[in-house]
Amino acid sequence: MIMSKDQAIGAGILATSAILIVVYLWWLFFSEWSWWAIVLPVLMMVLAVLGIAGWIGYTMATTPPPKPLEEIPELSDVTGGKEAGTSESKPTEEKKEGS
């Protein structure tokens, strides 16, 4: 049976993950370093979440605010120079066909 490149990569990932599961379970239950088997993954997860939160905060702090809507020419043409939300035009009633 000939496998494609993607199937070979998938099989490699599957085999690697199965081996790492066995190694982790041995490390957690049968090693004298089992405390580290809990501490290191938790530490890595906490650091990842805090790193993502810091990145989001940095991005929000360094991104300039958007232009007000009245300064965008495309939107000024659509509203006819009026401010958004203050349009006082009444909806027109559609004529029914056949009446």
TrEMBL record:
Keywords: Membrane, Transmembrane, Transmembrane helix. Residues 90-99 have a biased composition (Basic and acidic residues). The chain crosses the membrane at residues 7-29, 35-58. Residues 67-99 are annotated as: Disordered. It comes from the Archaea. This is Transcriptional regulator. The lineage of its organism: Archaea, Thermoproteota, Methanosuratincolia, Candidatus Methanomethylicales, Candidatus Methanomethylicaceae.
